């Protein structure tokens, strides 16, 4: 009798109004566009609107810059649950070279334009927007800003710089049944290890996987980027002035 009651309850739950049914969501193509740079000297863009786009800055030597290169398509997910299992959206590379003149950026925006299919039916393209915070730390500090010793580990060639990424509410959404989802970057991955922020060696090109998932829009907490970028801009200006004086 008890088994029968359990089975009946399960059947009612499946038939209940609003019960979620799983849908297959596929990202079929990605292009990337960098924009909305905060700070920086001699800023230029390469490859915007393609699968591999970069923003570059700095004078007096090799330019520093960010590169986003899309992962191999398609990327398939099953929704729900929220969040979906994490997947690799692409590779992020920071070309981190000393700036001998001019200033570094303190922030920049990345727009991912993705072709979306739900249960093999094309939904067209959606734009997902993310803001990157850049902290150009003083090379000669000891200890470095990350707490490590100068000349060791990630600070091997001078103090490492920090990159963070946050969700922007300009991002579009997809709808599965009664639920609204959006693409959310959850952080970086290096050699299989996840990180919420990326500390990058000086005088080198450093890469990490960008890890993302589909999350209910109501569960995503946007970073207060307008305040963050303003604060980072002031900090970056002070650091750049101290760096030139060093």
TrEMBL record:
Q: Which residues span the membrane?
A: 221-241
Q: State the superkingdom.
A: Bacteria
The residue range of the signal peptide is 1-22
Q: Kindly indicate whether the keyword Signal belongs to this entry.
A: yes
The answer, when asked if Acetylation is one of the entry's keywords, is: no
What does the UniProt keyword field contain?
Membrane, Signal, Transmembrane, Transmembrane helix
Protein name (Swiss-Prot/TrEMBL): PEP-CTERM protein-sorting domain-containing protein
């Amino acid at each position: 009798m008890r088994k029968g009651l359990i089975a009946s309850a399960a059947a009612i739950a499946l038939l209940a109004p609003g019960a979620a049914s799983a849908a297959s969501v596929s990202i079929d193509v990605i292009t990337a566009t960098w924009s909305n740079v905060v700070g920086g000297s001699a800023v230029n863009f390469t490859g915007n609107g393609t699968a591999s786009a970069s923003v570059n800055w700095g004078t007096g030597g090799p330019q520093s810059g960010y590169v986003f290169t899309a992962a191999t398509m398609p990327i398939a997910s099953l929704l729900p649950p929220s969040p979906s299992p994490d997947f690799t959206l692409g590779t992020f590379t920071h070309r981190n070279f000393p700036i001998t003149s001019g200033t570094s950026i303190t922030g920049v925006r990345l727009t991912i334009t993705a072709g979306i299919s739900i249960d093999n039916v094309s939904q067209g393209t959606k734009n997902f927007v993310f803001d990157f915070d850049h902290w150009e730390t003083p090379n000669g500090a000891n200890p470095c800003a990350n707490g490590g010793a100068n000349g060791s580990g990630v600070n091997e060639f001078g103090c490492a710089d920090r990159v963070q990424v946050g969700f922007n509410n300009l991002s579009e959404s997809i709808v599965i049944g009664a639920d609204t989802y959006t693409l959310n970057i959850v952080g970086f991955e290096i050699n299989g290890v996840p990180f919420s922020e990326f500390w990058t060696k000086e005088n080198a090109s450093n890469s990490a996987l960008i890890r993302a998932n589909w999350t209910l829009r109501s569960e995503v907490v946007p970073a207060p980027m307008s305040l963050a970028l303003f604060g980072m801009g002031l900090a970056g200006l002070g650091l750049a002035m101290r760096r030139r004086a060093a």
